[in-house]
Each structure stands twice: as structure tokens, then as C-alpha cells.
Amino acid sequence: TIPRLVAAPLVTQPPTEGHGKFVDGQLVSATADGGVSTWRATATLTKGAVDTHLFVSFRADGMLDLSEAEALRFETSIPAGQRTSSQLLVLAHERGGAIYVAHSGRSLAGDEHVISYVPWSSFGLAGWSKDADGDLDRSQVESISIGWGGYFGTEKEKVIFTVSQPQTVRIQAGSPSAR
């Protein structure tokens, strides 16, 4: 039997956008009729050559019990011609304040539509965060954030991405194949 990936949407409040001091940020719904829920995040840098960031946060009413999930899945698109030399990051915010980070492998340059899968094994404790045990407890995640940081762009530069509602991915045993 061949196992298959099964995706289910994270149940969260409507997303919010957070950004650094030298960023004007905006988040608007970009969902097409009947399509997957998506949001367009736009950052305008107000000062160049400084560390900037913008994240779209998906918060739960309580905890997101992700203990049965193997990975997160989300879709992104980037406007044609954008040349931002950074990639999207995923943050998992644990109850108690610890933050875990993973690189998505998704560039902020280019214009293609990409589906990203980020396995839990790729998350590590963020360098600016502390956690007594240093291990992400997937049953204690309060929110997931998708965005970028550590980018030293130019003043008035726009950094734009569209992101879907994240989904959890689990592996389900397959049924015997018909012969």
C-alpha cells in the first residue's frame, strides 16, 4: 500500500499582519470566488539598509494541536518582477513565548505560484528566543506566522506576497492498490 498525504485547514481567527519599525504594512483579503482563503501582504520599506520584517500571523482561539501533523502546507504567489533577495520563513509560537523558525525554501523573487510543505523536523528554536527544553511541543502552538525578516532593502521598496490559509499535513496509510 502507498501512503498518501492528507491536508486539513488550520482553524484560526482571521490573520493579522505584524512588521518592524521601518515598514509600512498592509494585509488584505485576496480570496477569489469559491477559492482557497488567501491574503496579500504588502510592505513598503520606509528606510533602507536596516533590518526589516513582515509576518502574517494565524492565531488560534486556544491551542493549535498539531501533534498528529507531519508538516504545514501553504500556497504563495509573488508579483512578476519582484527581486527581493530573501525567502519566506515560518514561525511556530509556543505557549509560554518560545518561537521556532523554519525556512520554507520559497524565494520572494519571481512570479510563480508555489505550494510549500514545511516538515516539523525543519523547525529549530529561533536565535532570539528561549525555551527551557529547546523542543517544539506541537500540542502547545498558539499561532503560526508566515513572512520574511532580516531583509536590508532600499527605501520605498515594496515587498509583496500572497499566502493561503495554512493547512496541516498528515500521512495516511494507503489502501492496497488494485491490480
Structure overview:
There is one protein chain. The chain starts with a strand and ends in a 7-residue tail after the last strand. The protein has one domain: Galactose-binding lectin (Jelly Rolls), CATH 2.60.120.430. The mean pLDDT is 93. The protein is globular and about 55 Å long. It is built from no helices and 13 strands. The chain has 179 residues and is mostly beta strands. The strands form 2 sheets. Strands 1, 3, 4, 6, 9, 12 and 13 form a 7-stranded antiparallel beta sheet that branches. The protein has a 6-stranded antiparallel beta sheet with strand order 2-5-11-7-8-10, with no helix packed on it.
List the topology elements.
Blueprint: E1 4-9, E2 16-19, E3 23-29, E4 38-45, E5 52-64, E6 71-77, E7 83-94, E8 99-109, E9 113-119, E10 124-125, E11 141-151, E12 158-164, E13 167-172
Antiparallel strand pairs: 1-13, 2-5, 3-4, 4-12, 5-11, 6-9, 6-12, 6-13, 7-8, 7-11, 8-10
Q: Indicate the CATH class.
A: Mainly Beta
Distance between the termini: 12 Å
What's the overall geometry? globular
CATH superfamily: Galactose-binding lectin
Quickly give the CATH architecture: Sandwich
Whole-angstrom Rg? 17 Å
What do we call the CATH topology?
Answer: Jelly Rolls
Proportion of β residues? over 45%
Task: Average the pLDDT over all residues and give the rounded result.
Answer: 93
Give the class from helix and strand content and strand pairing.
mainly beta
Q: Biggest sheet, open or closed, and with what strands and sense? A: 7 strands, antiparallel
Quantity of strands, as a count: 13
